[in-house]
Amino acid sequence: MDKIDIRRPHPLHQIAATRQLEAALAAGLPPHTLMQRAGLTTARLALALAPHAQTFWIACGPGNNGGDGLEAAMHLQQWGKTPLVSWLGTPQDAPADAQTSFARAQAAGVRFLDAQPAECNFCIDALLGIGTTRPAEGRLAQWIAHINALAVPVLAVDLPSGLNADTGAANGPCVRASHSLSLLTLKPGLFTGQGRDQSGQVWFESLGAETASIAPQATLGGAPPPATRPHASHKGSYGDVAIIGGAPGMSGAALLAATAALHHGAGRVFVGLLDGSSLGVDTCQPELMFRPMASLDPAQLTVVGGCGGGRAITAPLPRLLSMAPRLVLDADALNSIASDSQLATLLRARAARQRQTVLTPHPLEAARLLGSTTAEVQHDRLAAAEQLAQQLGCTVVLKGSGTVIAAPGATPVINPTGNARLATAGTGDVLAGLIGARLARGESAFEAACAAVWQHGQAADIWPQDQALTASLLAQAVS
């Protein structure tokens, strides 16, 4: 059993692949073996998390997730603890393995309750696992609400009940766990959408399964390798980045992107403002070079377009899409493409010309590009990012909790870093500048996006608790 280390990548498998793996593993084992392993692992983790707890409430559903909870209750009883089990199943209707675990729990003297207990020291959620098919109602919903009202640690078996293992969406009542023990495989839903809020600290136990035998549907991204800068290098070794944005009243967005690219190691950073070049120099950052946009040759640059661009970004977009070998498109550039089929055609044509392109939409911008709604995008973030990447032939960074990075022909990556401190104006502009700096020094679009998103989030994770995170400070901190 492992506590998930987000510094290294992990394969993620959806429900269908997990069930396939489970069936293959079970076929070579005696009956009930997997449930015995799952129950023992659950009990061990519960005891490790709360060694001094005496009373454990185990909420068990009618299926095999509930059977895992029944098996865990038996072990806790044998170890001198007081497990109290509330079971939504019945011996005659439960799956065969769960029936066996129920009999074992009864024989060990486990106490069964018809409802939730008045109090406990620790709770184990074994209600649904990956068996979520519709919103919880009735007693199931009542028990989920009771779990969430408890002021004790909560361990979810496989994943919090009510959370979709594939998507991270919770379409009804959902357990908010302090810890989740993912069994057989790690599921994408634990790490994106509502998953990170509901799952707490994630643990993993393979139960003896060889997950490498089945291709993952996504990867939990790990830390990028440390950057090295050889002594025998010069500013030209790290590329030129041009920021095209900053319509009237929004020049700050372009400056944030430029600052991030500068502090992230770009050799030179040019700024082409769309407000008539109100600035000739930034006295706080004299390294930034302001140029009339028409004087910049996108064919020789890595371009970050759209940050604070407003409607003014629409005019230069055809030139940028046609000429820039490396292009990051954010904010208003994405809105312009969503509303103009000719721009979308130019964007799709870039892939055939081997041009590197990264789009960085938030869910509303992604919805506009897909012709859908924000709710539909958030309902299945992984599928939305993959669909957008395939339709437009680009690397797509779908921002949000558990940012998804997708590209044609690549296994999508879910980023594990970042927190709600990033929910402030300008942090998306900073991310665009970071990606631009990495593209300029020769990384592929997908590689640059994954690394920049990880570092962007990690900066927020280690941010001093007594200091407000602002985009301008973040732009200088990420290096």
CATH topology term of the largest domain: UDP-N-acetylmuramoyl-L-alanine:D-glutamate ligase
Strand coverage percent: 15-25%
Q: What is the CA-atom radius of gyration, in angstroms?
A: 25 Å
In whole angstroms, the N-to-C terminal distance is 34 Å
Number of helices: 16
Share of residues in helices: 25-40%
At CATH level 2, the architecture of the largest domain is: 3-Layer(aba) Sandwich
Could you say which overall geometry the principal axes of the C-alpha atoms support?
Answer: elongated
**Assigned CATH class of the largest domain:** Alpha Beta
Which structural class matches the secondary elements? alpha/beta
CATH superfamily of the largest domain: Ribokinase
Topology (SSEs and partners):
Blueprint: E1 2-3, E2 10-12, H1 15-27, H2 33-49, E3 55-60, H3 64-78, E4 82-87, H4 96-108, E5 111-113, E6 122-126, H5 138-149, E7 154-157, E8 179-183, H6 195-199, E9 201-205, E10 218-220, E11 240-245, H7 251-263, E12 268-273, E13 289-290, E14 302-305, H8 317-323, E15 326-329, H9 332-338, H10 341-352, E16 356-359, H11 363-370, H12 374-379, H13 381-392, E17 395-398, E18 404-406, E19 413-414, H14 427-440, H15 445-461, H16 471-477
Parallel strand pairs: 3-4, 3-6, 4-5, 6-7, 7-8, 8-9, 10-19, 11-12, 11-14, 12-13, 14-15, 15-16, 16-17
Antiparallel strand pairs: 1-9, 2-10, 17-18, 18-19
